[in-house]
Structures are given as structure tokens and as C-alpha cells.
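Z., the sequence and structure:
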Amino acid sequence: MPKLSAGLLMYRFRDEKLEVFLVHPGGPYWAKKDMGSWSIPKGEYSQEEDPFIAAKREFHEETGFELDGQFIPLTTLKQSSGKKITAWAIEGDCDASKIKSNTFTLEWPPRSGKQMEFPEIDRAEWFGINLAKKKILKGQVGFIEELCNILTYEPSVKDEVNNKTEESKAKNKKPVQRSTF
């Protein structure tokens, strides 16, 4: 039985430009990874659980935010691992710097016998569509593309210019690892 995951793709319009809210996984494996490593807030659920309820729960656990409004179902995507991700889009807004993620414990460094606690999500950001499609894990790009189709939104040259500026800033920005000890 493949693993099941559910999540929410929050979006907003700023100066007529569509932006999506993505999260970056915490922990030492992801600390120095950026392009192609971001995700929608999501998490696994059991076969017996309602995926929509799981998506809302996972969004809250990973960000500390709760969402209400009109949820738009998106097409379930099958990842290369076989995992199936079910997602909904919702228009909303939040201060990405204010996320409060749950944590997980990991032996770190490996074979050290020391247990360390890491946030499941170490940061979140709003991205324009072109940059978001570069930042998000390859298997989740379809969610962004489907959202653009539903909203009949085509990224413009203006978006591309803004994304190049964002991308340049992102490359020069060192990742912040927020760990709880």
C-alpha cells in the first residue's frame, strides 16, 4: 500500500501577482538544500482518515496557522516514491516569518548516541509562480500549475523579473536553522 499524504497550497495576490506559500523541511539533511527542496505544508495520514481533515491538521502542525475559507480540491499527484499527495488550494495570507512548527527527534550527528530535536519545518516563504516552480519539490510542481489553470493566471514577464530578483536574494541568503534544544 503506497504512503498517503495530504496538504494545503495557500495562495495570495500581491500587486496583481500570484504568490504561493511554501515551507522548507527542517533538520540537518535539508539545512543546505534550497532549489527543488521546498514543499506545500503536508503530512502523512492513514487509509481510514479523511485526507481533508489531515491536510488541515498538518498545515496547522507545520505552521501554527489555521485556515478557513473556500478550499479548492487539486488533482492527487503520485510521487516517484509511489507516495500519493492529495491537496487543496485556498486563498489566504500570513506572516511567513511567524511559523511555529512541531518538532522531531533525530540522532545527530549519526552514530553519536546524541538525540537532537529539530523543527519539522524550519522556514516558510511566499514565492512568485516562476520561482516557486523552481523551489518546490519536482513531484509537487503540478499543484502550482493546476492552481494557475484554475485561476486562469499566466506568469508574466514582470513575474519573471521579480523572480530573478527574488532568486538572486535567495541564493545570497544563508538558510536559518531553527533548532530547539
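The domain at 4-172 is CATH 3.90.79.10 (Nucleoside Triphosphate Pyrophosphohydrolase). Residues 157-172 form the longest helix (16 residues).

Let me know what you think.
H.
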